[in-house]
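Progress note, sequence design subtask.
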């Protein structure tokens, strides 16, 4: 038997974009159902960086102080080690925001916090273990979502359907939306290694010829991203876990006494990196946002924050329309127009870094040298403010205006 729900807006995907949009719409008096395919948010190896642009939104929503009570670490600068040279790349302390730092927080804690705020609004529903399986097409207009749940089939009919179900989006595939693949030269192997009080301070990344790793300080452990050439994960595994542990220890010698914590490949997750975007984000009755509209490279950790900015723009533009009735194709296209520039600008910057830095490190031969932009930043510390703004705020930071400030 199929359960049927009628709502104003159905959001497929309980990630940062979906949860933030659901919260904002419900806060504005709009009935909304968010579908999350897992039973909870407790999953590892997701983006942990909450950037100043997102923290500013928390301030605008009046929930920043409560949010910052959750365990987190503050990062005011990003630095990198290239060979034997270390350079501070970005300094967030001069940003025109209330929080002049990146907050490192497990994504499940962030999503749980947003869910708690959303549940304070009567019109909000979060359905877990509910996976979108297809769309309801009513004479060419998307009229809702079909989903499978732990209790059986679910049909949600909605005036607006939003695909926020990530880079492997079922919604965008079901809608037949065309994807442009911009390419990526690398994949990432994620793992945890224990952290000790006398460990060196955190760097944004460590680069040696043919090797690259990023480490995030999670207080009692390091979240490590070991970057490998695209499609080589199986080859790395064939060389064996001892050889992989040695590669990690060679890159970061202070970890040598604990790489033995990696006892099984199950402790090392391979994340396939992709950079892509939709040609069109919408169909009548349907809008895609976040990674479903534009998969981002992990460079700069900006994906979660760009997705949240999409959610805010969607609420600002479509919220008032939903209060009055159904949204039009022009309304949906207005969201895409608003978010196209920051998406393309961010992806262009990421692709440039991929091609001119990461590809050369991982694939091309030749001696490793500090790139001239980093030499310039090292020589002129004021220039650290520019990458800080690009990473910390993005190219078009959004502000909450639906509903009005509290």
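Output:
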């Amino acid at each position: 038997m199929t359960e049927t729900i009628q709502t104003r807006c159905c959001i497929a995907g309980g990630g940062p974009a979906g949860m933030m949009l659901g919260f904002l719409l419900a806060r504005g008096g709009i009935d909304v159902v968010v579908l999350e395919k897992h039973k909870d948010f407790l999953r590892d190896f997701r983006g942990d960086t909450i950037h100043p642009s997102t923290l500013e939104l928390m301030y605008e929503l009046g929930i920043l102080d409560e949010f910052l009570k959750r365990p987190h670490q503050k990062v005011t600068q990003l630095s990198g080690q290239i060979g034997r040279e270390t350079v501070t790349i970005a300094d967030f302390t001069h940003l025109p925001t209330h929080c002049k730092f990146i907050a490192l927080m497990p994504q499940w804690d962030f999503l749980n916090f947003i869910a708690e705020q959303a549940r304070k609004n009567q019109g909000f529903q979060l359905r877990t273990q509910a996976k979108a399986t297809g769309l309801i097409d009513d004479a060419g207009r998307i009229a809702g979502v079909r989903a499978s749940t732990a209790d059986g089939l679910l049909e949600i009919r909605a005036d607006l359907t939003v695909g926020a179900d990530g880079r492997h989006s079922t919604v965008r595939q079901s809608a037949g939306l065309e994807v442009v693949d911009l390419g990526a030269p690398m994949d990432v192997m994620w793992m945890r290694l224990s952290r000790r009080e006398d460990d060196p301070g955190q760097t944004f990344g460590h680069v040696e010829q043919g090797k690259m790793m990023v480490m995030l300080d999670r207080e009692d452990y390091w979240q490590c991203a070991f970057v490998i050439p695209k499609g080589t994960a199986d080859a790395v595994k064939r060389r064996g876990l001892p050889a992989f542990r040695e590669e990690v220890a060679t890159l970061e010698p202070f970890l040598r006494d604990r790489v033995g914590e990696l006892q099984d490949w199950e402790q090392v997750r391979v994340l396939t990196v992709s950079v892509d975007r939709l040609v069109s984000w919408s169909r009548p009755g349907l809008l895609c946002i976040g990674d479903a509209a534009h998969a981002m490279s992990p460079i700069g950790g900006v994906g979660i924050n760009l997705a949240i900015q999409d959610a805010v723009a969607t609420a600002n533009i479509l919220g008032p329309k939903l209060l009055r009735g159904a949204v039009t194709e022009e309304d949906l296209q207005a969201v895409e127009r608003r978010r196209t520039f920051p998406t393309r600008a961010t992806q262009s910057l990421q692709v440039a870094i991929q091609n001119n830095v990461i590809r050369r490190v991982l694939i091309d031969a030749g001696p490793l040298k500090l790139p001239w932009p980093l030499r310039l930043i090292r020589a002129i510390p004021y220039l650290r403010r520019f990458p800080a703004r690009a990473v910390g705020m993005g190219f078009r930071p959004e502000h909450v205006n639906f509903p009005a400030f509290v």
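The first strand starts at residue 2 and ends at 12. Work on this subtask will continue into the next period as scheduled.
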